[in-house]
Protein backbone atom coordinates (compact mmCIF):
# COMPACT_ATOMS: atom_id res chain seq x y z
CA UNK A 1 0.00 0.00 0.00
CA UNK A 2 1.09 3.56 -0.69
CA UNK A 3 2.79 5.35 2.19
CA UNK A 4 2.25 9.00 3.15
CA UNK A 5 3.84 11.46 5.55
CA UNK A 6 2.09 12.81 8.61
CA UNK A 7 4.53 15.43 9.72
CA UNK A 8 7.70 13.39 10.07
CA UNK A 9 5.88 10.06 10.48
CA UNK A 10 5.43 7.63 7.60
CA UNK A 11 2.14 5.69 7.63
CA UNK A 12 0.06 3.61 5.24
CA UNK A 13 -2.30 5.72 3.13
CA UNK A 14 -5.22 4.09 4.93
CA UNK A 15 -5.33 3.00 8.54
CA UNK A 16 -7.59 0.83 10.65
CA UNK A 17 -9.70 2.28 13.45
CA UNK A 18 -10.15 -0.33 16.18
CA UNK A 19 -12.58 1.34 18.59
CA UNK A 20 -15.59 -0.71 17.50
CA UNK A 21 -13.77 -3.91 18.38
CA UNK A 22 -14.16 -3.05 22.05
CA UNK A 23 -16.89 -0.45 22.50
CA UNK A 24 -19.60 1.83 21.11
CA UNK A 25 -20.89 -0.20 18.14
CA UNK A 26 -22.45 -3.18 19.85
CA UNK A 27 -20.96 -6.60 20.55
CA UNK A 28 -17.65 -7.67 19.06
CA UNK A 29 -15.68 -10.89 18.92
CA UNK A 30 -12.06 -11.11 20.11
CA UNK A 31 -11.00 -13.74 17.59
CA UNK A 32 -12.71 -12.07 14.65
CA UNK A 33 -11.26 -8.68 15.62
CA UNK A 34 -7.78 -10.19 15.95
CA UNK A 35 -8.12 -11.77 12.52
CA UNK A 36 -9.19 -8.39 11.08
CA UNK A 37 -6.14 -6.60 12.47
CA UNK A 38 -3.80 -9.30 11.19
CA UNK A 39 -5.43 -9.25 7.75
CA UNK A 40 -5.01 -5.48 7.70
CA UNK A 41 -1.27 -5.85 8.18
CA UNK A 42 -1.18 -8.45 5.39
CA UNK A 43 -2.85 -5.92 3.08
CA UNK A 44 -0.44 -3.15 4.01
CA UNK A 45 -2.92 -1.32 6.24
CA UNK A 46 -0.26 -0.91 8.90
CA UNK A 47 -1.43 2.29 10.63
CA UNK A 48 -3.39 0.85 13.56
CA UNK A 49 -5.40 3.28 15.68
CA UNK A 50 -6.58 2.65 19.24
CA UNK A 51 -6.96 4.55 22.53
CA UNK A 52 -6.72 3.77 26.20
CA UNK A 53 -10.38 4.74 26.68
CA UNK A 54 -11.74 2.24 24.13
CA UNK A 55 -13.27 -0.50 26.22
CA UNK A 56 -11.41 0.92 29.23
CA UNK A 57 -8.10 -0.54 28.11
CA UNK A 58 -9.52 -3.63 26.42
CA UNK A 59 -8.80 -2.33 22.93
CA UNK A 60 -5.12 -1.72 23.55
CA UNK A 61 -4.72 -5.24 24.90
CA UNK A 62 -6.50 -6.61 21.82
CA UNK A 63 -4.36 -4.59 19.42
CA UNK A 64 -1.15 -5.44 21.24
CA UNK A 65 -1.80 -9.14 21.09
CA UNK A 66 -2.93 -8.99 17.47
CA UNK A 67 0.33 -7.39 16.32
CA UNK A 68 2.60 -9.42 18.59
CA UNK A 69 5.47 -10.73 16.50
CA UNK A 70 4.82 -8.09 13.83
CA UNK A 71 5.38 -4.95 15.86
CA UNK A 72 8.08 -3.69 13.52
CA UNK A 73 5.63 -3.82 10.60
CA UNK A 74 3.00 -1.52 12.10
CA UNK A 75 2.57 2.07 13.21
CA UNK A 76 0.72 2.10 16.51
CA UNK A 77 -1.33 5.14 17.39
CA UNK A 78 -3.04 5.49 20.75
CA UNK A 79 -4.39 8.31 22.88
CA UNK A 80 -4.40 9.80 26.36
CA UNK A 81 -6.47 12.45 28.06
CA UNK A 82 -9.54 10.39 28.90
CA UNK A 83 -9.68 9.03 32.45
CA UNK A 84 -11.73 5.88 33.00
CA UNK A 85 -10.37 5.17 36.48
CA UNK A 86 -12.63 7.55 38.40
CA UNK A 87 -14.96 4.77 39.59
CA UNK A 88 -17.89 6.95 38.57
CA UNK A 89 -18.94 4.73 35.72
CA UNK A 90 -17.94 7.14 32.99
CA UNK A 91 -14.95 8.52 31.14
CA UNK A 92 -13.89 12.09 31.93
CA UNK A 93 -11.36 14.40 30.27
CA UNK A 94 -8.10 14.63 32.22
CA UNK A 95 -5.09 16.36 30.67
CA UNK A 96 -3.04 16.79 33.82
CA UNK A 97 0.63 16.05 33.08
CA UNK A 98 0.91 13.36 35.76
CA UNK A 99 -2.14 11.60 34.38
CA UNK A 100 -0.83 11.70 30.81
CA UNK A 101 2.52 10.22 31.82
CA UNK A 102 0.91 7.48 33.90
CA UNK A 103 -1.51 6.74 31.06
CA UNK A 104 1.39 6.32 28.63
CA UNK A 105 3.06 3.75 30.87
CA UNK A 106 -0.20 1.85 31.19
CA UNK A 107 -0.74 1.95 27.41
CA UNK A 108 2.76 0.62 26.75
CA UNK A 109 2.04 -2.28 29.10
CA UNK A 110 -1.30 -3.11 27.51
CA UNK A 111 0.11 -2.83 23.99
CA UNK A 112 3.11 -4.96 24.90
CA UNK A 113 5.58 -2.55 23.33
CA UNK A 114 8.37 -0.22 24.40
CA UNK A 115 7.22 2.75 22.34
CA UNK A 116 4.13 4.38 20.84
CA UNK A 117 4.58 5.64 17.29
CA UNK A 118 1.88 8.32 17.43
CA UNK A 119 0.49 9.54 20.74
CA UNK A 120 -2.61 11.73 20.62
CA UNK A 121 -4.14 14.04 23.17
CA UNK A 122 -7.62 12.53 22.90
CA UNK A 123 -9.53 15.69 23.84
CA UNK A 124 -8.47 19.08 25.16
CA UNK A 125 -9.16 19.66 28.85
CA UNK A 126 -10.32 23.27 29.41
CA UNK A 127 -9.14 23.03 33.02
CA UNK A 128 -5.49 22.43 32.11
CA UNK A 129 -3.30 24.74 29.99
CA UNK A 130 -2.65 23.00 26.70
CA UNK A 131 1.03 23.91 26.91
CA UNK A 132 1.36 21.88 30.10
CA UNK A 133 -0.29 18.81 28.59
CA UNK A 134 1.86 18.94 25.45
CA UNK A 135 4.92 19.53 27.61
CA UNK A 136 4.25 16.26 29.41
CA UNK A 137 3.84 14.47 26.07
CA UNK A 138 7.07 16.03 24.85
CA UNK A 139 8.81 14.58 27.90
CA UNK A 140 7.61 11.15 26.77
CA UNK A 141 9.29 11.72 23.40
CA UNK A 142 12.52 12.67 25.15
CA UNK A 143 12.29 9.51 27.24
CA UNK A 144 11.87 7.37 24.11
CA UNK A 145 8.40 6.13 25.06
CA UNK A 146 6.72 8.05 22.23
CA UNK A 147 7.96 8.86 18.73
CA UNK A 148 5.47 11.46 17.45
CA UNK A 149 2.67 13.57 18.91
CA UNK A 150 -0.87 14.18 17.71
CA UNK A 151 -4.05 15.98 18.70
CA UNK A 152 -7.67 14.94 18.32
CA UNK A 153 -10.64 17.23 17.67
CA UNK A 154 -8.86 20.58 18.01
CA UNK A 155 -9.12 24.03 16.48
CA UNK A 156 -6.44 25.71 14.42
CA UNK A 157 -5.57 27.95 17.37
CA UNK A 158 -5.11 24.93 19.63
CA UNK A 159 -2.97 23.23 17.03
CA UNK A 160 -0.71 26.27 16.76
CA UNK A 161 -0.41 26.49 20.55
CA UNK A 162 0.57 22.84 20.82
CA UNK A 163 2.92 22.93 17.84
CA UNK A 164 4.84 25.81 19.46
CA UNK A 165 5.67 23.49 22.37
CA UNK A 166 6.52 20.38 20.34
CA UNK A 167 6.04 19.46 16.64
CA UNK A 168 2.68 17.85 15.98
CA UNK A 169 2.56 15.15 13.32
CA UNK A 170 -1.19 14.71 12.93
CA UNK A 171 -4.61 15.97 13.89
CA UNK A 172 -7.33 13.37 14.08
CA UNK A 173 -10.89 14.53 13.47
CA UNK A 174 -14.16 13.09 12.31
CA UNK A 175 -14.23 13.81 8.58
CA UNK A 176 -16.46 12.44 5.86
CA UNK A 177 -18.92 13.36 3.16
CA UNK A 178 -21.41 14.32 5.85
CA UNK A 179 -19.02 15.78 8.45
CA UNK A 180 -16.87 18.54 6.99
CA UNK A 181 -15.98 20.49 10.16
CA UNK A 182 -12.16 20.14 9.91
CA UNK A 183 -12.17 22.10 6.67
CA UNK A 184 -13.10 25.28 8.53
CA UNK A 185 -11.76 24.58 12.01
CA UNK A 186 -8.23 23.24 11.57
CA UNK A 187 -7.24 22.52 7.95
CA UNK A 188 -5.60 25.89 7.30
CA UNK A 189 -3.36 25.59 10.36
CA UNK A 190 -2.52 22.00 9.50
CA UNK A 191 -1.40 23.03 6.01
CA UNK A 192 0.68 25.94 7.30
CA UNK A 193 2.44 23.80 9.90
CA UNK A 194 2.91 20.67 7.76
CA UNK A 195 0.58 18.60 9.93
CA UNK A 196 -1.35 15.67 8.43
CA UNK A 197 -5.06 15.01 8.94
CA UNK A 198 -6.29 11.60 10.10
CA UNK A 199 -9.97 11.11 9.34
CA UNK A 200 -11.99 8.90 11.64
CA UNK A 201 -15.50 7.76 10.75
CA UNK A 202 -14.92 8.41 7.02
CA UNK A 203 -17.95 6.21 6.36
CA UNK A 204 -20.26 8.42 8.41
CA UNK A 205 -20.27 5.84 11.21
CA UNK A 206 -21.30 3.31 8.59
CA UNK A 207 -24.33 5.19 7.29
CA UNK A 208 -22.72 6.15 3.98
CA UNK A 209 -22.20 2.49 3.07
CA UNK A 210 -25.95 2.10 2.65
CA UNK A 211 -25.85 -1.07 4.75
CA UNK A 212 -26.90 0.38 8.11
CA UNK A 213 -30.54 0.25 9.17
CA UNK A 214 -30.77 2.85 11.91
CA UNK A 215 -34.07 1.41 13.15
CA UNK A 216 -32.54 -1.98 13.91
CA UNK A 217 -29.33 -1.00 15.69
CA UNK A 218 -28.56 -3.06 18.79
CA UNK A 219 -29.52 -1.63 22.16
CA UNK A 220 -25.84 -1.19 23.06
CA UNK A 221 -24.94 0.54 19.79
CA UNK A 222 -23.86 4.11 20.53
CA UNK A 223 -25.24 5.38 17.24
CA UNK A 224 -28.73 5.16 18.71
CA UNK A 225 -27.86 8.30 20.69
CA UNK A 226 -26.74 10.33 17.66
CA UNK A 227 -29.04 12.89 16.04
CA UNK A 228 -28.44 11.70 12.49
CA UNK A 229 -29.55 8.18 13.38
CA UNK A 230 -32.94 9.08 14.82
CA UNK A 231 -35.83 7.68 12.79
CA UNK A 232 -36.77 11.00 11.19
CA UNK A 233 -33.20 12.07 10.41
CA UNK A 234 -32.10 8.66 9.17
CA UNK A 235 -35.05 8.52 6.79
CA UNK A 236 -34.13 11.92 5.37
CA UNK A 237 -30.44 11.04 5.17
CA UNK A 238 -31.15 8.03 3.01
CA UNK A 239 -31.10 10.47 0.11
CA UNK A 240 -27.44 11.17 0.84
CA UNK A 241 -26.58 7.48 1.04
CA UNK A 242 -28.51 6.85 -2.16
CA UNK A 243 -26.57 9.54 -4.03
CA UNK A 244 -23.31 7.89 -2.99
CA UNK A 245 -24.67 4.49 -4.02
CA UNK A 246 -25.56 5.72 -7.52
CA UNK A 247 -22.02 6.93 -8.16
CA UNK A 248 -20.67 3.65 -6.83
CA UNK A 249 -22.96 1.66 -9.07
CA UNK A 250 -21.70 3.44 -12.19
CA UNK A 251 -18.11 2.68 -11.22
CA UNK A 252 -18.77 -0.90 -10.19
CA UNK A 253 -17.59 -0.37 -6.62
CA UNK A 254 -19.27 -0.08 -3.22
CA UNK A 255 -20.71 3.05 -1.66
CA UNK A 256 -18.24 2.75 1.18
CA UNK A 257 -15.34 2.76 -1.25
CA UNK A 258 -16.65 5.95 -2.84
CA UNK A 259 -16.94 7.61 0.58
CA UNK A 260 -13.36 6.69 1.51
CA UNK A 261 -12.00 7.68 -1.90
CA UNK A 262 -13.61 11.11 -1.49
CA UNK A 263 -11.85 11.63 1.86
CA UNK A 264 -8.46 10.67 0.41
CA UNK A 265 -9.01 13.00 -2.55
CA UNK A 266 -9.44 16.01 -0.25
CA UNK A 267 -5.74 16.02 0.58
CA UNK A 268 -4.90 17.85 -2.63
CA UNK A 269 -7.57 20.49 -2.07
CA UNK A 270 -6.68 21.02 1.59
CA UNK A 271 -2.95 21.03 0.95
CA UNK A 272 -2.07 18.34 3.48
CA UNK A 273 -2.29 14.53 3.44
CA UNK A 274 -5.59 13.05 4.61
CA UNK A 275 -5.40 9.50 5.92
CA UNK A 276 -8.75 7.79 6.57
CA UNK A 277 -8.94 5.21 9.34
CA UNK A 278 -12.26 3.44 8.71
CA UNK A 279 -13.21 1.25 11.62
CA UNK A 280 -14.41 -2.28 11.24
CA UNK A 281 -14.32 -5.53 13.17
CA UNK A 282 -14.78 -7.85 10.19
CA UNK A 283 -12.33 -8.97 7.51
CA UNK A 284 -14.92 -8.64 4.75
CA UNK A 285 -15.38 -4.91 5.30
CA UNK A 286 -11.68 -4.34 5.89
CA UNK A 287 -10.85 -5.76 2.47
CA UNK A 288 -13.48 -3.60 0.81
CA UNK A 289 -12.21 -0.50 2.59
CA UNK A 290 -8.59 -1.13 1.63
CA UNK A 291 -9.58 -1.43 -2.03
CA UNK A 292 -11.01 2.11 -1.91
CA UNK A 293 -7.53 3.49 -2.53
CA UNK A 294 -7.78 2.17 -6.09
CA UNK A 295 -10.98 4.12 -6.83
CA UNK A 296 -10.55 7.20 -9.02
CA UNK A 297 -13.07 10.00 -8.81
CA UNK A 298 -13.61 12.41 -11.69
CA UNK A 299 -14.13 16.16 -11.20
CA UNK A 300 -17.84 15.58 -11.84
CA UNK A 301 -17.92 12.84 -9.18
CA UNK A 302 -16.23 15.11 -6.68
CA UNK A 303 -18.60 17.99 -7.43
CA UNK A 304 -21.64 15.77 -6.92
CA UNK A 305 -20.27 14.36 -3.69
CA UNK A 306 -19.21 17.77 -2.35
CA UNK A 307 -22.80 18.95 -2.51
CA UNK A 308 -24.13 16.22 -0.23
CA UNK A 309 -23.06 17.73 3.09
CA UNK A 310 -25.62 20.50 2.70
CA UNK A 311 -28.40 17.90 2.56
CA UNK A 312 -27.56 16.14 5.83
CA UNK A 313 -30.25 16.22 8.51
CA UNK A 314 -29.24 16.19 12.15
CA UNK A 315 -26.34 17.59 14.15
CA UNK A 316 -23.13 15.62 14.50
CA UNK A 317 -23.86 14.96 18.19
Automatic annotation (TrEMBL):
Domain NADP-dependent oxidoreductase span(s) in chain numbering: 15-309
Name of the protein in question: Aldo/keto reductase
Annotated GO CC locations: cytoplasm
GO terms for MF: oxidoreductase activity
Keywords linked to the UniProt accession: Oxidoreductase
Family matches, as InterPro entries: AKR (IPR020471), Aldo-Keto_reductase (IPR050791), NAD(P)_OxRdtase_dom_sf (IPR036812), NADP_OxRdtase_dom (IPR023210)
Pfam name, any one: Aldo_ket_red
Organism of this sequence: Streptomyces nodosus
Keyword Oxidoreductase included in the entry's annotation: yes
Keyword Oxidoreductase tagged: yes
